[in-house]
Structure formats: C-alpha cells, structure tokens
Amino acid sequence: MHDRAPGLDISVPNVARIWDYQLGGKDNFEVDRHAAETLNELCENVGAPDGRRVASESRAFLQRAVRCLARAGVDQYLDIGSGLPTRGNVHEIAQEANPLARTVYVDYDPSVLAHGNALLADHNPSTAATVVIKGDVRKPETILQDKVLRGLLDLDRPVAVLLVAMLHLIPDTAAAAAIVATFRDALSPGSYLVLTHTTSEHRPEAAVALAAEFERLKVTTPLVPRRVDQIRRFFDGFELLEPGLVSPPQWRPDTPVAPDDDSRWMYAGVGQTARAVRR
Ligand SMILES: C[S@@+](CC[C@H](N)C(=O)[O-])C[C@H]1O[C@@H](n2cnc3c(N)ncnc32)[C@H](O)[C@@H]1O
C-alpha cells in the first residue's frame, strides 16, 4: 500500500496538490496535473462527475457548513487535512460571521504548511486567531495535545472539527472510526463534526477502478470510497443536522438545486454531540 507521509517530492502525484489542481489552484506540478487528468478521464468514461466537480462541490459544502455554524455562534474550528490554501478558507468564512473566530489548520504535508504559513504571514489582524500546525490525523491524541492548538482553542467549549475529503484517505475503516471517536470524546459537549467522504454507493465497480487508479498512479495516499452505511457510522455519537447525510450540493444550498440523480461521488454531513445539560 502506497501510504507514505509526503515530503516535498515532485516526482509522484500528491493528494493535496491534485486537489488544488481540481479546485483551479496553481500550487501543483505536471505530475499532479497528469494524475488529476487521468482520474478525470476515468470518471468521464463511466459517465460520472469528474474530480473538478467533486472538489468544487465538496469545497462549496464546507464553506456553507462553516458559514452556517459561525452564524449559529460556533467560534472554534479545527480543520484537519486542511489542504493548500484556496479562495474562501475556513478562517475567512468564520471571521466574516464572527471576527473573533479561531481556526487551527492541521495537515501532515510540508507544502501545505509552507503555503498556509505564507498566507497567514500577511500581518492581517484577522490571522492572529489562526494557525497552521503539522499533524497526522492517524495520531489524534498528538493533535489534541499540541501546545499551539491548546493555546488557541479552548477545549472546554464546543469546537467544529472538519474532516472534509479526508477520511476516504484512511484505508482502515475501523481506524478511521476510532479517529473520529477520539475527537468526539475529547471535545466538549455540543461540538460538531463536518465531513465529506467519497462513496462507492452509486457505482461500486467504478469506485474500485478509481481506487486502483490512485494506486497505479502512486498518489501519496490511497483512496477508499465507502458505502453510505459505513460513512453514516462515522457520525456515531453525533446527531446529524438537517438535512442529514446527503450529496454535498443538497446540504442547505444557497439557491434551489435539482434533486439528486445518484450521480454523485460524495456524501456530506454535519453532526453535533449532545449538549451538556446544566442543572
Ligand atoms: C483532498 S485534500 C482536502 C483538503 C481540504 N480538507 C478541502 O476539503 O478542501 C486532503 C488533505 O488531507 C491531507 N492529509 C492526507 N492524509 C493525512 C494525514 N494522515 N494527516 C493529516 N493530513 C492528511 C493531505 O495532505 C491533503 O491536504
């Protein structure tokens, strides 16, 4: 299994840079663009939405979800597997609704850390409440104990944990569920989980082919599309907010969208743990 932690290697396709390319970004190399185009062609050949559409729908969901939580008063965000900075980053959206919102970005990719720190070094006062830290989601306790994180987030108050387009990069389903459970149990009651995840639900054979293509192209992580029941289980201990686990465009769209035609590659949802009852 090609599950290496990435360095600054531009000879193999990198999952953060492929995602950046799919989102229309410029922080990618020929090897990433070639891999992205190969994956997109596979999708087109099976009549499925390609990576550009998947990435932009997932990202638009993330932005609506953060806006919605920020307007509801959530002021702490932990964005894990945050990716290369793009337009409409979590801290920018959260601070539009609440200038005091705090955001910790976590990624294990050095290029994400470098670009993130460059973005935050612009002396904009709004970035004082935002940091980028190095962390591997497979070690959730280490992330939670990080001193910089602890200096910015008050874990005695609710936090929104974002695992957007992230858990499908963790091959072991039980391990992925344990990661979510660790965050759920460590965080204050009333905390949130924001998630998108690639699914095999609507076209299982194409999902197997897509995962095999990730492997063949030697992308820095595997891709593990899961069935909807497996994805739903990541929300164990959370109550799903309306409209539940749906395709990204169906989650509280800003303007009316057509009903789903089962063509989607992803599920999206936002869950909240039970709030503490004050006696
Ligand atoms: C597909 S991108 C998603 C980026 C962002 N969450 C978004 O939705 O736009 C996945 C990100 O997860 C990061 N990643 C992959 N495996 C990771 C791990 N084990 N720990 C931390 N980050 C990881 C990659 O470096 C990449 O930046």
Overall description:
A seven-stranded mixed sheet has the order 3-2-1-4-5-7-6, sandwiched between helices. It has helices at residues 15-22, 30-45, 51-71, 90-97, 110-120, 140-145, 147-152, 173-186, 204-217, 228-233; strands at residues 76-80, 102-107, 130-134, 160-164, 192-198, 239-240, 266-272. The longest helix has 21 residues, at 51-71. The mean pLDDT is 93. It is globular. The chain is built from ten helices and seven strands. Helix 3 packs parallel to helix 4 (90-97). The chain has one domain (15-244, 265-272): Vaccinia Virus protein VP39 (Rossmann fold, 3-Layer(aba) Sandwich). The chain has 279 residues and is α/β, with parallel strands linked by helices. The structure holds S-adenosylmethionine.
Q: What is the number of beta strands?
A: 7
Largest sheet: 7 strands, mixed
Percent of sequence in beta strands = 5-15%
Do you know the CATH architecture?
Answer: 3-Layer(aba) Sandwich
Radius of gyration: 18 Å
Protein name: S-adenosyl methyltransferase
InterPro entries: SAM-dependent_MTases_sf (IPR029063), SAM_dep_MeTrfase_SAV2177_type (IPR006764)
Organism: Paractinoplanes rishiriensis
Pfam families: Methyltransf_19
Characteristic terms for this protein:
single chain, Rossmann fold, seven-stranded mixed beta sheet, 10 helices, binds S-adenosylmethionine
Q: In a few lines, what is going on in this structure?
A:
With 279 residues, this protein is α/β, with parallel strands linked by helices. 39% of the residues lie in helices and 13% in strands.
